[in-house]
Design a protein that fits this description.
Largest sheet of chain A: 6 strands, mixed
Number of strands of chain B: 4
Structural class of chain B: alpha+beta
Largest sheet of chain B: 4 strands, antiparallel
Number of domains of chain B: 2
Shape of chain A: globular
Distance between the termini of chain A: 25 Å
Number of helices of chain B: 11
Structural class of chain A: alpha/beta
Shape of chain B: elongated
Strand order of the largest sheet of chain B: 2-3-1-4
Oligomer: heterodimer
Helix content of chain A: 25-40%
Largest interface: A-B, 27 and 20 residues
Bound molecules: adenosine-5'-triphosphate, magnesium ion
Chain lengths: 225, 309
C-alpha cells in the first residue's frame, strides 16, 4: 500500500482536534476521493500526507516511510515523490508558465539538458504547450489549475495529492481536471483528491473516504458509475 | 559537476535579475555600503601614504655633526673614516667650510654680503647617515645621536628627533582609530545588507513556501539570498573603490606640490591592487555572512505548515 494511517489524531496548537483516531489505507495505483463537510478535516489529512503538518498521535506511513521518523532535513526529498495540486494553484507569478512547471525539476537538480523535454511533455499533457511563455496571471482559472497540475506531475511522482482542485471552477472545467487525474491514475499514479463535489465520485467510479468532525465515518468501495 | 555549476550560475543570474528588478532599493543599499566601505578604505589609504611619506624622511634621515672650529679638514676626514666603521652607520659625508659657504650663498641670496667676509666662519660638518633599522627606531636613533655628541671634536650633534617620534605615535593612534571606525562601519554594512535581505525574504515568503512545498531544500532557498547579499557587498565594495579613487585624484595635485616643498618627490597612491581586492572581497564576504545569518534566522518562519494548504 502507498498510504497507511493508523489511529491518527491531529490537534492544532490552538487546541482544535481536526482529526480523531483516523485509520485507512490507500493502495498503490488507486484513485481515492476524500469528502466531508467544511471543517471536517480533509485539508488536515492531506497536510499530514505531505508532511506540511505532523500527526499528534498515531502513525502515518507513505511510500514505505514512517513520517513520524523522518528527519527535517530529508523532508524536501520526501516531498519530491509527491505531486501536490492546490485549490489556489500556488503558481509563482513572476515566472513564466514554463519556469513554473520547470521549478520542481530545477529544485531537485535535474539535468538541464532533459529539462525542456520534460516540461514540454507535462504541458502537452494538460493541453497548454502553446502557452509556455505566458505569465500565469494572463491565463484563466482553469488554465492556471492545469499549469499547477503540470507542475505536480513533471517530476513523475508516484503519488498525486489534490485539495479541492476544482473549488473555483465551473462544472465543465472541473470535469476536465478530474478527467486529467483519472488519466494519470490510469497510467499508474496513485491519486488522492479532496473534494466537495460528489458528482465526480459517481462519474469516475472510484472509492471514497468521508470525514465528519475529524472522524472517518465512511469508507465506500468502488462506486458504480 | 556541470549540473552543480549551472545551478549556481542560474541562481547568480537570478539574483542579478532580482537586484535589477528592485533597482531602487538595491541602488540605495549599495550606495550606503559603498560609502560605509569607502570611508575606512580611504583612511587606510591615507595612512598608507603618510607611512610612505615618513619613510622618505627616515630614508634620508641624517645626523649633522658640527665640529669644533679648530678641527682641521684632515682630522675631520679621519673621523669620517672611523665613523664609517660604526655598526649603526651606513656612511658619512663630509662638508667642508668652503662647500658649505657655496651652498649658503646659493640658498640665501646673500652672495655679495658673504663675499665681503674675509674669513670663512663655518665649521666642518659631517653628515652621518644611520642604518635603516636605526633610522626606523626612535630609541636607537636617540642613542646614536647621544653617542656621537660625546665625541671629542664634535661640538653639536643635531637631529630633529621629537618630530619623528610624535608622528610615529600619532600614526599608531590614527591606525587604531581607523580600525575602530572600520569595524563600526563594517557592522553597519552587515546590518544594512541583513535588512535588505530580510525585506527580500518577507517579500518573497509566498515563493519560499511554494519552493519548499515542491521539494526545495533550505540550501536551495538560501542560495539566491546568499548570492544577492554577496553581490550587494561586492558592488558596494566596487563603488567604494571608485569613491576612493576619485577622492585621491582630487587631492593628489596639492599633495605632491606640498611634499615638493619639503624637497621630497612624492606621489599620492590610491589603493594598491591587494588592498583593493581586500576591500571588495571583504564587502562581498560581509554581504554573504550577513545574508547567511539573516536567512538562517528568518527562513524557518516560512515553513509550509504555517499557512493554509
Ligand atoms: N492551521 C490551523 N490552525 C488551527 N486550526 C486549524 C488549522 N487548520 C485547520 N484548522 C481547523 O481544523 C479543522 C479542520 O480543518 P480543515 O481545513 O482540515 O477542514 P476541511 O475539511 O479541509 O474544510 P474545507 O472543506 O472548508 O476546506 C477546522 O475546524 C479548522 O478550523
Ligand atoms: Mg480544506
Amino acid at each position: 500500500m502507498l498510504i497507511e494511517f493508523s489511529k491518527v489524531s491531529k490537534r492544532y496548537p490552538e487546541g482544535h482536534e481536526a482529526l480523531r483516531n483516523v485509520s485507512f489505507v490507500v493502495d498503490k495505483g488507486e484513485m481515492v476521493f476524500l469528502t466531508g463537510h467544511s471543517g471536517a478535516g480533509k485539508s488536515t489529512l492531506l497536510r499530514l500526507v505531505t508532511l506540511i503538518e505532523h500527526a499528534t498521535n498515531g502513525q502515518v506511513v507513505v511510500n514505505g516511510q514512517n513520517l513520524g521518523r523522518l528527519k527535517r532535513r530529508t523532508i524536501p526529498y520526501f516531498r519530491r515523490q509527491i505531486g501536490m495540486v492546490f485549490q489556489d494553484h500556488k503558481l509563482l507569478h513572476n515566472l513564466s508558465v514554463f519556469d513554473n512547471v520547470a521549478l520542481p525539476l530545477i529544485v531537485s537538480g535535474f539535468h538541464p539538458r532533459d529539462l525542456r523535454r520534460r516540461v514540454h511533455a507535462a504541458l502537452d499533457k494538460v493541453g497548454l504547450l502553446n502557452r509556455d511563455r505566458a505569465k500565469p496571471i494572463t491565463l484563466s482559472g482553469g488554465e492556471q489549475q492545469r499549469v499547477g497540475i503540470a507542475r505536480a506531475v513533471v517530476n513523475r511522482p508516484s503519488l498525486l495529492v489534490a485539495d479541492e482542485p476544482t473549488g473555483n471552477l465551473d462544472s465543465g472545467l472541473s470535469d476536465e481536471i478530474f478527467d486529467l487525474f483519472h488519466d494519470f491514475n490510469y497510467h499508474g499514479v496513485t491519486v488522492l483528491v479532496a473534494t466537495h463535489d460528489l458528482r465526480h465520485i459517481k462519474r469516475l467510479g472510484k472509492r471514497s473516504l468521508t470525514l465528519a468532525d475529524g472522524y472517518m465515518t465512511q469508507q465506500t468501495d468502488t462506486a458504480q458509475p | 559537476m556541470i549540473v552543480w555549476l549551472t545551478r549556481h550560475l542560474q541562481t547568480l543570474i537570478g539574483s542579478l535579475g532580482d537586484l535589477s528588478r528592485n533597482s531602487f532599493s538595491s541602488i540605495l543599499s549599495i550606495s550606503v555600503i559603498g560609502i560605509a566601505l569607502a570611508l575606512p578604505g580611504a583612511m587606510f589609504a591615507a595612512l598608507e601614504n603618510i607611512h610612505k611619506f615618513t619613510a622618505e624622511f627616515e630614508h634620508g634621515a641624517k645626523i649633522s655633526l658640527f665640529l669644533a672650529p679648530e678641527v682641521s679638514i684632515m682630522q675631520a676626514k679621519d673621523l669620517q673614516q672611523s665613523l664609517a666603521q660604526h655598526g649603526d652607520i651606513k656612511y658619512v659625508e663630509i662638508i667642508t667650510p668652503d662647500q658649505a659657504m657655496e651652498e649658503f650663498k646659493l640658498r640665501s641670496g646673500l652672495k655679495d654680503a658673504l663675499n665681503s667676509l674675509s674669513e670663512n666662519p663655518l665649521p666642518v660638518v659631517l653628515l652621518v647617515y644611520p642604518e635603516d633599522k636605526v633610522a626606523r627606531s626612535p630609541e636607537k636613533l636617540a642613542g646614536l645621536i647621544n653617542e656621537l655628541g660625546k665625541l671629542e671634536p664634535v661640538e653639536l650633534s643635531q637631529f630633529d628627533l621629537e618630530w619623528i617620534k610624535r608622528l610615529t605615535a600619532l600614526l599608531e593612534l590614527a591606525t587604531r582609530a581607523v580600525w575602530v571606525i572600520a569595524i563600526i562601519l563594517g557592522l553597519g554594512v552587515f546590518l544594512v545588507i541583513g535588512n535588505t535581505i530580510r525585506l527580500a525574504i518577507v517579500n518573497r515568503q509566498e515563493e519560499i513556501r511554494i519552493i519548499k512545498l515542491i521539494g526545495g531544500t533550505d540550501a536551495f532557498v538560501r542560495r539566491s539570498f546568499l548570492y544577492s547579499g554577496m553581490l550587494q557587498g561586492l558592488f558596494g565594495g566596487l563603488l567604494a573603490l571608485l569613491v576612493i579613487f576619485l577622492l585621491f585624484s582630487f587631492i593628489s595635485k596639492p599633495a605632491s606640490s606640498l611634499s615638493s616643498m619639503y624637497g621630497i618627490r612624492f606621489a599620492l597612491d590610491p589603493l594598491q591592487l591587494l588592498p583593493s581586492l581586500i576591500l571588495t572581497g571583504s564587502g562581498a564576504l560581509l554581504g554573504w555572512l550577513s545574508a547567511r545569518i539573516t536567512v538562517g534566522v528568518y527562513l524557518r518562519q516560512f515553513e509550509p505548515g504555517k499557512q493554509q494548504l
